[in-house]
Amino acid sequence: MIGLDGQPLTIYLATRPVDFRKGHDGLSSLVQETFGRDPFSGAVFVFRSKRADRIKFLVFDRTGLVLAHKRLEGGKFVWPGIRDGVMRLSPAQFAALFEGLDWRLVRPERARRPELAG
Fold first, then answer.
1. pLDDT band for position 68 (50/70/90)?
2. What is the rounded CA–CA span in Å between residue 59 and residue 40?
3. What per-residue confidence (pLDDT) applies to 1?
4. Which of 11, 33, 80, 81 has the fewest CB atoms within 10 Å, i.e. is most exposed?
5. Average pLDDT rounded to a whole number, residues 97-117
């Protein structure tokens, strides 16, 4: 997955559930004040609900803040253990999480630098 301006997409997952009544402003303040990150950096910030069946993600696309919300019907998202802070996800792990799959099973291959040309 490619981010803005061809830069790789950076994805941060908040490991502690948040108040899902929060909107654009509340979540961007949380990103800035609690996590010490810039909500306008173009990174994707992912949040979970207490019941684990809902997900929100916030991203700035250079024209405004985009907030998306998804609720799984008849299931729950797979989340890491609840603790303070954030963790990074790869774009493939985020795609699996968003589909309701176990993102922990996605292991992106690390690109190795070739030693010889040709």
1. very high
2. 7
3. 43
4. 81
5. 81
Q: How far apart are CA 74 and CA 61, in angstroms?
A: 32
| Predicted TM-score (pTM) of this structure | 0.81
Q: Exposed, middle or buried, 55 (CB in 10 Å: 0-12/13-18/19+)?
A: buried
Using a 10 angstrom Cβ sphere, with 0-12 exposed, 13-18 middle and 19 or more buried, the burial of residue 40 is middle
**Residue in 3, 52, 59, 71 with CA at minimum distance from that of residue 27:** 59
Which of 9, 6, 25 lies closest to 64 in space, CA to CA? 25
What are the pLDDT digits (tens) for 26-45?
Answer: 999 999 998 899 999 999 99
Q: Are 46 and 55 in contact (CB under 8 A)?
A: yes
Share of the chain above pLDDT 90, in %: 47
